[in-house]
Amino acid sequence: MFEGVVRTMLEFGVAYAALGITFALVFVSLLAPRMDEQAVGAGVGFRLLILPGVAAFWPLFFWRWMRGVTEPPVEKNPHR
Predict the structure, then answer these.
(1) Would you say 32 and 50 are in contact if contact means Cβ atoms under 8 Å apart?
(2) What is the Cα–Cα distance from 57 to 50, expressed in whole angstroms?
(3) Contacts of residue 75, Cβ cutoff 8 Å, sequence gap at least 6
(4) What's 71's DSSP letter?
(5) Residue 51 in contact with residue 66, Cβ under 8 Å?
(6) pTM for this predicted structure
(7) pLDDT for 44-55, tens place per residue?
(8) In this structure, how many other beta carbons lie within 10 angstroms of the beta carbon of residue 61?
């Protein structure tokens, strides 16, 4: 039973990582300039820098892309 749970968790992790890397490559190459005007004209260094973060948090970026949000949200904190 324990092996089945571990195997399921490992398969989920591999699937999450595979989807994340795939989405991150598409996002960094095509979608980032469309969703954030600050990313227009950004070089390869910037794209490589954001690649791991986009791969890790791909559901958030995917959800934002599906909703059609084109600008990052304005921060609402005491420092703003």
Answers:
(1) yes
(2) 11
(3) none
(4) S
(5) no
(6) 0.78
(7) 888 899 899 999
(8) 21
